[in-house]
């Protein structure tokens, strides 16, 4: 699975959480931060984490990943850091 | 996930094994939501085998915002109805932070057979400390309500491109100026001392040593039959966020 795939999925989920209008004027890249660039609220990040858990299952173990950070560290994360975590915990793809 | 209970949609999150002891979290007022537990206590407790249930109180976070029903007694009924929807019939622990502590105590009072224990973090539930808190919070919220209504804070922030702050201000405005929340707080939201004596389950109270609510710790210990208190020295109202590890250790020791 390539970078683009997971990034695309994450961007689509961000759009579902914050509403498409928020992203109209910007392109989300791996360097985009959740707090400063996207203005994501902490409760919206919870909703995003929930969607990721549904999509990728417990193997991605987002709870443990996030559990090692405090809320400020989580919100200061870039989209790319989250994508990297998901990719490194994905099972080998057999498509 | 969304749960429909008492005719409303509630945002609910669960972490931890399904067969563990259940701990339900109730958060604080207006600017607070379940994320304050999601990023602090929920994951470490889940790791210790506790099934944690987090929900956004009505009007807060991602739950629905009806015009009425904002007393802590109503929120206690919301909590019990959510447990019903999740088919959790075993007695649960309820942990409330700040205002959520009052919700937790009302839950124990309303449904003694369904509550195994209560953890109150920085909440004044009754007596003089409770009355002072209600007076203070009602004043603060009323001033904020006027400010939000007349300054058009949200529009100004939006114009500045401050999406997050604008959204928080918008939610606070809708809650304070569009619902009965402030009125519901004024009218009998506290427990009486007789109520405290009736609390049948063990209660753990955790307070900050420098908190304005510190008198509530002695009040709670004096009236609840089975009460343990723990004071975190040097901290104010922000125990959950600033003393997460100490709070977690205290809760785990108390649960065992």
For the structure shown, list the relevant keywords:
heterodimer, A: mainly alpha, B: 256 residues, alpha/beta
Characterize the structure shown.
- The complex is a heterodimer of chains A (95) and B (256).
- By secondary structure, chain A is an all-alpha fold.
- Chain A contains five helices and no strands.
- Chain A starts with a helix and ends in a 7-residue tail after the last helix.
- By secondary structure, chain B is an alpha/beta fold.
- In chain B, a hairpin with a 2-residue loop joins β1 (2-5) and β2.
- An eight-stranded mixed β-sheet of chain B has the order 1-2-4-3-5-6-7-8, with helices on both faces.
- Chain B is built from eleven helices and eight strands.
- The chains are: A mainly alpha (95), B alpha/beta (256).
- The A-B interface holds A 22, 35, 39-43, 45-47, 50, 63-64, 66-67, 70-71, 74 and B 1, 11, 13, 15, 33-36, 38-40, 43-44, 46-47, 56, 61-62, 162-164, 167-168.
Percentage of residues assigned to helices of chain A: 55-70%
Give, in order, the helices and strands of chain B. Answer: EEEHEHEHEHHHHHEHEHH
The pair of chains with the biggest contact is:
A-B, 18 and 23 residues
- Rg over C-alpha atoms of chain B, rounded to the nearest angstrom: 18 Å
Q: What is the structural class of chain B? A: alpha/beta
Give the SSE map.
The complex is a heterodimer of chains A (95) and B (256).
Chain A: H1 3-18, H2 42-56, H3 62-67, H4 71-76, H5 79-88
Chain B: E1 2-5, E2 8-15, E3 22-26, H1 35-47, E4 51-55, H2 72-85, E5 92-97, H3 99-110, E6 115-121, H4 127-151, H5 153-159, H6 163-178, H7 181-186, H8 193-198, E7 203-208, H9 214-223, E8 227-232, H10 239-242, H11 244-255
Parallel strand pairs in B: 3-4, 3-5, 5-6, 6-7, 7-8
Antiparallel strand pairs in B: 1-2, 2-4
């Amino acid at each position: 699975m390539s970078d683009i795939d997971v990034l695309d999925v994450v961007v689509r989920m961000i759009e579902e959480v914050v509403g498409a209008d928020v992203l109209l004027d910007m392109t989300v890249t791996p360097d985009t931060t959740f707090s400063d660039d996207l203005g994501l609220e902490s409760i919206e990040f919870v909703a995003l984490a929930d969607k990721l858990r549904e999509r990728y299952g417990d193997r991605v173990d987002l709870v443990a990943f996030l559990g090692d950070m405090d809320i400020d560290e989580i919100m200061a994360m870039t989209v790319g850091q989250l994508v990297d975590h998901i990719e490194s915990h994905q099972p080998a793809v057999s498509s | 996930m969304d749960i429909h209970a008492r005719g409303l949609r509630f945002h609910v999150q669960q972490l931890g094994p399904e067969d563990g002891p259940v701990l339900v979290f109730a958060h604080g007022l207006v600017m607070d939501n379940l994320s304050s537990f999601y990023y602090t206590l929920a994951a470490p407790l889940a790791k210790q085998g506790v099934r944690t249930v987090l929900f956004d109180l009505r009007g807060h976070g991602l739950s629905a915002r009806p015009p009425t029903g904002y007393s802590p007694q109503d929120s206690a009924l919301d909590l019990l109805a959510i447990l019903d929807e999740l088919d959790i019939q075993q007695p649960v622990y309820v942990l409330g932070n700040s205002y959520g502590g009052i919700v937790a105590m009302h839950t124990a009072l309303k449904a003694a057979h369904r509550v195994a224990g209560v953890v109150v973090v920085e909440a004044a539930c009754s007596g003089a400390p409770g009355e002072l808190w209600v007076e203070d919070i009602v004043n603060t919220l009323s001033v904020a309500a006027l400010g939000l209504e007349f300054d058009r804070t949200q529009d100004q922030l939006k114009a500045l491109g401050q999406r997050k702050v604008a959204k928080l201000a918008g939610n606070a405005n809708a809650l304070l100026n569009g619902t009965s929340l402030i009125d519901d707080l004024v009218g009998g939201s506290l427990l009486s001392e007789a109520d405290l004596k009736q609390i049948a389950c063990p209660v753990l109270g955790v307070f900050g040593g420098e908190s304005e609510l510190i008198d509530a710790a002695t009040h709670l210990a004096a009236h609840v039959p089975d009460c343990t208190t723990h004071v975190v020295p040097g901290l104010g109202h922000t125990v959950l966020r600033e003393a997460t590890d100490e709070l977690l250790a205290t809760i785990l020791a108390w649960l065992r």
